[in-house]
Protein: UDP-glucuronate decarboxylase
Organism: Erythroxylum novogranatense
Amino acid sequence: MATEVRLDLDGRPIKPMTICMIGAGGFIGSHLCEKILSETAHKILALDVYNDKIRHLLEGESLSWGDRIQFHRINIKHDSRLEGLIKMADLTINLAAICTPADYNTRPLDTIYSNFIDALPVVKYCSENNKRLIHFSTCEVYGKTIGSFLPKDSPLRQDPAYYILKEDASPCIFGSIEKQRWSYACAKQLIERLIYAEGAENGLEFTIVRPFNWIGPRMDFIPGVDGPSEGVPRVLACFSNALLRREPLKLVDGGQSQRTFVYIKDAIEAVLLMIENPGRANGQIFNVGNPHNEVTVRQLAEMMTEVYSKVSGEAPLEVPTIDISSKEFYGEGYDDSDKRIPDMTIINRQLGWNPKTSLWDLLDSTLTYQHNTYAEAIKKVMAKPTAS
Ligand code: NAD
Ligand code: UDP
């Protein structure tokens, strides 16, 4: 634990606080818990249905953070302890969600309930009890770029005004209702609007975070090892799984979509700044991403293949990628965001935050983690005879 007094961005000492973190057992939650426990004096009430990813923070009496983290196994859909825990805390951070694209078109009801209905009591309890809320939304609320509707050869496609995503100016553009992919984005948009309205009408102190493809260790699961064999995680885990098994990486609809990837450890720095600078973060919606790390999904596959070969010492496959249609990969109702570059003006101005890690470096450390964590387990799984 840090013993020196921490100062906020305006030079004032930061008082230790109690944070109710919902979804603390997930990918982002696990990194946020680690950061808070190792660098601050804040206490965490960690709520989740699972705790595998934070078990290392909960076990062992000798841990230097002692009793500053308390795990509560709670499903926020139906648990009367939720309001009491929010009341005990100074700040609530809500990370709980279904947030894997493979679920959006195949489990649209669960997706909408999880991202909208289940978040409602959290907003209500914060508002009624005058507690601050940091709510995790998504860059997906922007949907498609304006530029994606222009003719393929239009020079306007090169103009940033047609693709840079700005919190206070860009529209939210989703596909038609039968494209159920957008169930997630739409539910997230509505909860953002509700939180914003609670701020405007009832004085709720809130911050909304829009993550742009945060990636790193502990993201999702490797199918058949620490998650279901038939499960489809987000792209980092899908590609890691293929590399570990020495199978070609599947490029959905040719891998032409573009993404910007930010290293989880850079992004967590931004969240800590929001936690500790309420005067600068309240009432704001923040893009959190790395505009310099843009690639097509195809380029990501090529880079991950190269980095993994270096990390594992194994030569890449002769045919490292294969194309697959979105219908075959995700099923009916899938659609995609074409391009996601965050405008950084607001987060720069309010918090002075900038990402540091290049795509190559973040893939290097993440794939080293994946190799060390999963390579042996995958060999064992693959050696088992399959039932005929
Ligand atoms: P994650 O799936 O790893 O974590 C979510 C956690 O919430 C899980 O541990 C899950 O068990 C928990 N949870 C879900 N429903 C719950 C319930 N009813 N009760 C209690 N716990 C519940 O996902 P993540 O990547 O850590 O994402 C966290 C948040 O950030 C989500 O709201 C997601 O929509 C948002 N987000 C993340 C990214 C990213 O790049 N990782 C991008 C956009 C948005
Ligand atoms: N994708 C892919 N192959 C995979 C998994 C994902 O080509 O094995 C693509 C997917 O269609 C999307 C991008 O990779 O264009 C990023 O997918 P992810 O699941 O990480 O979530 P998203 O960024 O769309 O929210």
In short: The longest strand covers residues 43-48. The CA atoms of residues 97 and 221 lie 16 Å apart. Residues 23, 25-29, 48-50, 74-77, 95-97, 99, 114, 118, 136, 138-139, 211, 213-214 surround nicotinamide-adenine-dinucleotide (ligand 1) (CB under 6 Å). The chain has a mean pLDDT of 96.
